[in-house]
Amino acid sequence: MFGYVLIDKPDMFVKDFAMYRAFYCGYCKSVGKKCSQIMRFTTNYDITFLDLLLHSVYGREKQLDNQVCVLNPLRKKTIGLRDELTDRCIDANNILLHYKLRDDILDKSGAGRGFIDKVVLRRHYKKACKNLPQSDRSCAENYERLRKLEKENCAELDAAADPFACMMRDIGEEVFAEKYTPAIGDLLYNIGRWVYLTDAMDDLEKDAKSKNYNPFLAGYAFEGREKFIADKKEELDFIFAASQKAIMEAFDKITTPLYEGVLTNIIWYGLPAATKTIIGGNKIAKKSLFNSGIER
What value does the mean pLDDT take over residues 228-247? Predict the structure, then answer.
């Protein structure tokens, strides 16, 4: 995924941060056991949120253990242990990564994407498809819809964001299985919409320079981020405020018996902070194992 669904550490209790870190590091270790050590680079904040939400909705406490980390083998830390729910998230992330890499290849953005997809990811993607066939179909269909909108240079933000939002909702339906509710679908749909638009804002300069499609740039003569923000301030404020409102309303309808402090921090504080950072022109690193931002 993209790495924008962040915590807001200054507004987080120490116990909640410790649990979040255990989930993040535990997911990373679980990927190493389920897939391969090199696949641990796919660990990201967005999928950690999904893992937390899934365990919370199921009311299943994450089993913890003190273990060493490959990045710091001399010091043990609290790690969330691999389980069937985390495996579902790993499969979902592998499917999403496959289609993201394919999209990057078509956009000719980033060297080595084809190698990663064919050599590193492919066998794990195929296994994930067997476990989550509906998610794979949704990603294939919705990325095709997205490519069509890109070719049409679609300037309607809701239409442009809809394919990715639908992917998130459909993946959620399969991953949450018997615990899935319309509120979970609404939450994941609106987070998907927000992620797509946030990523588009993050890539403004890059897309303007490479002439790649960006819904914010369709029909707009880009002369720099500062002028763009000035010209579009009211529209941007409305778009992201509406997204945040929809996310919060959906989240409030979901019963989260576990990890509510962590989840609430992300929804109420982390997402608005990320939006403010991106609109302000600062980059959020798209985190991986090697640049996680999680204190070791």
Answer: 95
